[in-house]
Write a structure and sequence with these properties.
By secondary structure, the protein is an alpha+beta fold. Helix content is 56%, strand content 20%.
Length: 410
């Protein structure tokens, strides 16, 4: 084995009389290097996008949401909440009231989704606390100094309305009281207690939080809830826990986990990731053609050496292994340096904001990168396998060379 490796390495270092082999070898290594590095970087970026989006969604939303199929209010919500809390794997349950309203300020008007919650419970099922950029989320359960209830709004919504913590907004509901001139919209003043930034434009621009008691009073619903937000110990187990909750509550309740609620989005990201992997693997496949060319040229150039080794009793398999090792040396060298280059590029992209992204489109301001050991392992295996397959045919052809004919012509 050492002899075969020695000869393969010797052939890669061509003599001055034939530098074409060194050139082809260099191009082969460079091609595999760039293919491996590109594949690692792209897959890591795609994983980063998916992971970042998952964290954003789970940060502003619960792992599981339970409501009625007919979207009617839940009257005995305390009892239903207790049943959900007793399900194995559930770590938090927060009732909520959801409705659409208009928020008006001195500067602008905006349509929003207002969410009435119990602040202490909501903090157990979502990460809204860490998203607060100004003020405190718990303050929505307190009254302002002037006696008005308080509200927490998203960053973009606050910018559109032109308000800061301490400013007043008016909440308007189209479902008001009937009068002689038709329905009179219901209005109530709220004081902005805080501003949050979930990192997702849709939520920052159209979501507001108030205390559930203020929501019940404003909408005149009485002591009811629209549904429940539920957190689990392991968000990957949310589908199984959601199924167990559905079994406990039965119809007309509907239990949905975060995966099913965002199935289309994550399915598209997963499909795109696999498609990019397959497409970029073609770079390595194209680079492997250089390996075929290099081995073919080497065999043609070293006919006399092959004939002498065959005449001295070297078996066909040994000759074949020499050129297979030559191809594998190129493949291993290109793959190793490709892994290093890919790692360096990923680190640079992760630490430095080289490319800025519009937050309202991508929900993030920079390219996210998530390096996983599995990515490096899969890319490495694919690159080495492709290189191995590429070297099979020319290596086998080298072993079929007739030594007598080669020496006669030489």
């Amino acid at each position: 084995m050492k002899f075969e490796r020695f000869v393969a390495g010797r052939y890669l270092r061509s003599r001055k009389s034939n530098k074409i082999l060194s050139f082809i070898s260099g191009i082969s290594i460079l091609g595999i290097l760039l293919g491996v590095a590109t594949l690692i970087v792209v897959v890591s970026v795609m994983s980063g996008f998916s992971d970042n989006l998952k964290n954003r969604i789970l940060g502003a939303n619960a792992h599981i949401v339970v409501n009625r199929v007919d979207v009617s209010p839940i009257k005995n919500w305390q009892g239903i909440g207790k049943i959900i809390e007793d399900v194995d794997g559930v770590t938090g349950v927060s009732p909520f009231i959801l409705n659409q309203v208009l928020l008006t300020s001195e500067n602008n008007v905006s349509g929003v989704v207002v969410r009435g919650v119990v602040p202490e419970r909501e903090l157990k099922v979502t990460s809204i606390k860490k998203f607060m950029t100004d003020g405190y989320f718990n303050d929505i359960s307190k009254k302002a100094e002037n006696g008005n209830p308080q509200i927490a709004v998203g960053k973009e919504l606050a910018a559109n309305l032109g308000v800061l913590p301490g400013d007043e907004v008016v909440m308007v509901s189209p479902f008001g009281k009937k009068g002689p001139f038709g329905i009179t919209p219901k209005m109530k003043r709220f004081e902005v207690s805080g501003i949050f930034d979930t990192g997702m434009y849709e939520y920052n621009n159209s979501l507001a939080y108030i205390d559930i008691s203020d929501a019940q009073e404003f909408f005149g619903t009485g002591d009811i809830a629209s549904g429940f937000s539920i957190s689990t110990g392991n968000f990957d187990k949310a589908p199984a826990i959601a199924a167990q909750i559905q079994k406990e509550l039965d119809f007309p309740f509907w239990s949905r986990d975060w995966i099913s609620m965002n199935k289309n989005l994550f399915s598209a990201l997963k499909l795109e990731k696999y498609a990019m992997f397959i497409i970029l693997t073609l770079i390595i496949i194209v680079a492997s053609f250089n390996v075929i060319s290099m081995i073919t040229v080497t065999v043609k150039d070293k006919k006399r050496d092959i004939a002498i080794m065959r005449a001295m009793g070297a078996p066909e398999k040994m000759i074949s292994r020499i050129f297979m090792k030559q191809g594998m040396i190129i493949g291993i060298t290109g793959t190793v340096f490709g892994n290093i280059l890919g790692f360096v590029i990923c680190v640079v992209l992760e630490r430095f904001k080289l490319i800025s992204l519009p937050e309202d489109v991508y929900f993030m301001d920079r390219i996210p990168v998530k390096m996983e050991l599995s990515t490096f392992v899969v890319v490495t295996v694919c690159a080495l396998l492709i290189t191995y397959i590429a070297g099979l045919f020319p290596a086998k052809q080298s072993a079929k060379l007739d030594p007598i004919e080669a020496l006669r012509r030489d």
